[in-house]
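Can't paste images in this forum, so I'm doing it all in text. The chain is below; anyone willing to post the predicted structure tokens underneath?
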Amino acid sequence: MSYQYRFERILTLKEKEKDEVNEQYKGAISKFEKVAEKLYESLKKKEDLERYQADKIMNGLSVQDIRHHQHFISNLDKTIAYYQDLVIQARNRMNWYEEKLVDMNVEVKKYEKIKEKDLLLFQKTIKEAESKQLDEVSVVQYMNRGIR
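Text version of the structure:
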């Protein structure tokens, strides 16, 4: 008699779902990292431009150049705000997938625990059946010795 877990299909399905969510989570992390990198680059560009403008103002800079730099900084501020929104969305998506992955891990663990307990019960039942069968064989042998 071989062991057959009654929820094997469900366990396999849950593991597959967990793997899919794990892949989606990794994708969300990757997207978050890309967007965060772009935000960092924009912030760095703004900081460099402001530093450059401050140095130029000390040495003398035309009003036209100051306006040009301020316009460029204003555009960078809009870009930074855009990337900040994307980072927030990407972080929320990443956190959502993380929570979903944790839930899926818990669910898979539950089915694995049930399988473990079921296997132990199956092994116990087999041992009891073997023990009972050995007892019966012993009784039959004893009875056969008594008859001779």
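The longest helix spans residues 63-147. The radius of gyration is 35 Å.
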